[in-house]
Amino acid sequence: MLIIGEKLSIIAKRVREAMMKKDKGPIQEIAVRQWKEGSGIIDANIGPAEDGGEELMKWMVTTIQEVVPLPVCLDTTNASAIEAGLQVHNNEWGSPLINSTSNDPERFPILELAAKYKCRVIGLTVGKGGLPADAEERAGIAAEIMARAMEYGVPLEDIYLDPLVLQIATSQDHAAKVIDAIKMFQEMNDPAMKTVVGLSNISNGCPRHIRPILNKYYFLMLMNAGLTSAIADAHEMAEALKEKQLFDDVLAGKQIDDAEKMKEIKKTIEVIMGNTLYAHSYLEM
Amino acid sequence: MAFTAPKETYSGKVYSVTIGTGDSAVTFGGENVLPFHAFEGITPSRPVIAVEIQDVAPADWPETVRKPYEAVSNDPVAWAKFCQDELKARAVALRLVGTHPDRENRSPEDAVRTVRDVLAAIRVPLIILGSNHAEKDSAVLIAVAEAAKDRNCIIGKAQEANYKTIAAAAMANNHKLIAMSELDINLSKQLNILISQMGFEKERIITDPMCSALGYGLEYTYSVMERIRLAALTQNDTTMQQPLLGDVGMYVWKVKETSAAEADLPHWGALEERGIAWEAETASALLIAGAELLIMRHPRAIRAVETLIDELV
């Protein structure tokens, strides 16, 4: 399981301020922490970065790689900022990952970059026409992305298919559909296609105390479905892995000693699978 | 081989709720099947339509729906009696719209007087609604819930912002409670959970997923109601088994289609018929989606929906 550390995102206030001031301290501190916690790639999410995106991405990549021997995930919609990042990326630590291309023609130039710089790229299974309705539609879009990747000369083993995790609080039925999509994606090539999710989005909009619970158990369910990587909180995922045996026992219908934990796992599985309607207090019911 | 119609069976059941007292009490809910699927299970009660009145004269209602109440609508007591005696309403819904700070801003004491007078004048169950101003409703509904103690009314509407005080008032005075959330099934469930966590029995809640008129988002209300009913029946979700309210009248009689003059829009057809049809259509759709309790305004729209119910039960 490859964890792409999610914490260097412009959405976080501390990170945004450091990016604006070009203050290396907080960026490097967070990068190192994520590396120590088990991240295999560090995500650098600079947002749309319409002004000065090139400079910012270059600065992020070099700042991160100064202290961490890992590749960087270049996360922005600005293609020229991605290219700027690729030019300075130190491939000694592994090839960079681009986040992302999709089935939207505006995102095709990303594939050109992936071919030119021989790097990995996330294929988000959305088209121009909005969100996919189910696992089948996601797989259909994945097939188009794969065909286009071959056309552009990007090897399929460099593609990470992303089914797009949606918020459980507002789109509960998609939680299980994404798990199905992860299974379907793997079948689409031999060797199996690689997969990735933006994991924490599952619990976006949920109360703070239940977010890690949803994140952890959703991660384990996706892992059981064959997920290869996740953009996630490495610390949280390490915690999840510690609980994997317990989780699998509960899933197999076994009793576990910790009754509270068992209830928490069972209820979360029911909500993720759509057998119980989600509410913020679902654990208390 | 004889044909056997396929039948669905469900694991859950909608709570049966009784409002009012004595011979005039009415009961709704109680079914263990989708709306009107009597052939698959039990449907012990027919849906109830409450006729809406308000504490101040309905100057803001369109002419079509003002006219039938012209003689009585200056006085909530006369209006309530008219609904009970002339329209044979099975329940009356009194909306205390005059308490809204942007309207007449009537005090909780004024509201208490109105509620007392109306309760003294009618036998049929009363639904007591605030003005949908979260803060003011807290004060008003606490006062009127006490004034209506033991009459087994429905008090509403409790929302995320004010449910604690309103639920406590309904609980202390033995009323039922409307819990309203804004067109979101997950928030609707959450509000029911929060209210029951206060110790308010979940069997005494009526869920209002928020209404909308035909042409103005009715499909959202329809879909939320339908999904609530499916969660109640197929998932046996005890936090979603409350009867559903369609607060139809107030949403229908403010849309353009129920008030635009025939002279301006001749291709829209006769104004009066149009408005009545709009209310009846909206109400019928929500009945099919799962509403067990409707609040409506126009006597002819109500009659049309009652006839539809007669044919469906």
Topology, please?
The complex is a heterodimer of chains A (285) and B (313).
Chain A: E1 2-5, H1 13-21, H2 24-36, E2 41-47, H3 53-67, E3 72-76, H4 79-88, E4 97-102, H5 109-116, E5 120-124, H6 135-152, E6 159-162, H7 173-186, E7 194-198, H8 211-224, E8 229-232, H9 234-242, H10 244-251, H11 259-272
Parallel strand pairs in A: 1-2, 1-8, 2-3, 3-4, 4-5, 5-6, 6-7, 7-8
Helix pairs in contact in A: 1-2, 2-3, 3-4, 6-7, 8-9, 8-11, 10-11
Chain B: E1 16-19, E2 26-29, E3 48-54, H1 63-66, H2 76-85, E4 91-95, H3 108-121, E5 126-129, H4 134-147, E6 154-158, H5 163-172, E7 176-180, H6 185-197, E8 205-208, H7 218-234, E9 244-246, H8 248-252, H9 271-289, E10 291-296, H10 299-312
Parallel strand pairs in B: 3-4, 3-10, 4-5, 5-6, 6-7, 7-8, 9-10
Antiparallel strand pairs in B: 1-2
Structure write-up:
The complex is a heterodimer of chains A (285) and B (313). In chain A, 46% of the residues lie in helices and 14% in strands. By secondary structure, chain A is α/β, with parallel strands linked by helices. Chain A has a single domain, classed as Alpha-Beta Barrel (TIM Barrel), CATH 3.20.20. The longest helix of chain A is centred in the middle third of the chain and has 18 residues, at 135-152. In chain B, the strands form two sheets. Chain B has an eight-stranded parallel β-sheet with strand order 8-7-6-5-4-3-10-9. The longest helix of chain B is centred in the last third of the chain and has 19 residues, at 271-289. Chain B is globular, with a radius of gyration of 19 Å. The two termini of chain B are 29 Å apart. At the A-B interface, loops of A face α6 of B.
